[in-house]
Amino acid sequence: MQIIRLTSLLVLLLIITSSGKKVLPSQPNLIVFIADDVSWDDFGCYGNPYVNTPNIDKLAANGLKFNNFYLTASSCSPSRNSIMTGRYPHNTGAPELHQQPPDHLLSFAEVLKDNGYYSVQAGKFHMGPYARRGFDLTYDDRKSFGDGGELQWVKSISERPKDRPFFMWFAAIDAHRSWGPNDFSGTHPPKSILPPFYLDSGQQTKEDLAKYYDEIYRFDHYIGEVVAELKAQKALDNTVIMIMADNGRPFPHSKTRVNDRGMKTPFIVHWPDAIKKMPDCNSLVSAIDIAPTILQLAGIRAPQQFQGTSFESLITEPTKEFRSYVFAEHNWHDYEAHERMARFKDFMYIRNSRPNLPLMGPADAVGSPSHQDLVTLKNNGQLSEIQADIFAVPRAYEELFDCENDPEQLLNLASKPEYKEKLEELRNVLDTWIEETNDNVPEHLTPDWYTHKPGYEKTEQHGIRGDTPGTDKATTTTESGPF
Length: 483
Hints:
By secondary structure, the protein is of the alpha/beta class. The protein has 15 helices and 13 strands.
């Protein structure tokens, strides 16, 4: 009988090990590199021919690149809090810029720390007191972390305790405006840059983009420095490196928008012990999925608070299907706003509850040279239809885009009779998400704090907060809507 049981166990083990399912290493080290204001296609590995990102490109070539990874907000603090809590912005209690979630929320960093991980935050923080509980050490002041936010990264790796797994939240300020001089200034000649079609192609915009690319290059450089230190410590192979951004580039048509230019992020996973060269992952993934994934990789049960779902299976099988839907929101960021987006495999649906307002982007984009070039074109009657979009009022209450045939989301199909059934279907999906996650549209939203003029010119309503999106149950619900 004992021999039979042993034989059965051996057969079971053989089935498991021969099934093709790779067993991942336990308790890896974890690093999240998060850029500030960088769009998904502004790394070389995502097809940008003008920017220098050799270190990121190398990590992507030897790791796993995600092509449909979506943030939940194209706005700094709402996006970062969403990532940290694994919750949608209106479910964090801090859906607007500069708000802080309540103390009862957990960050995944705190869960890691409570389970033996040594954790360090170095660079831009912009989250709140609840998140500080998750770190043994924080470097979050400009004097300590430098102009780009990266000065303490290598130090954090070199001075860590060597007898514990570690988690590092390395948060750059690069490439947030305003551009300052740095060691990489001038590395992207403006004359060699062709601006995207929704911006002007003049010299001023080219110089604006060149300075932006210089800061991305600095972000890339310090990632390379961290990788070199990990190699020197022989710690690279069992370190999971994730590279991403918190929202779109600080240019017109991008930051704060709920389309791909604002809401889609680059996302790269590098982990030599588990990932060799992998095919790209084209599955839909949401930023709320990062928290449960990291905890699963660390062998830790995720708390019920998280609305996201672990995408650990995609790390070994990147061609698998994952989500059917991702959702995102645009709430106040300098200007009054309330938009909701649902992205599907082939379609994107957007609902704008403030169609009477323009979508020029945040105040830093409005004050940019690139925006001023568009204003000049507007005054001269020379704007293309897509360039003119940021000035358009009134706007459509609903937008529907065929992402397979219109990947730039340029042609609104919501009014076309042949798309009536698809429009109704996607309305219902978004309505279900709104109901299940306790979202709402407050009557009195936070108003514009600035005029649409350069220089952060304040309105009479500056400093006045309206009602925050999300019902009374929003911060306690664990429902996540359609998956």
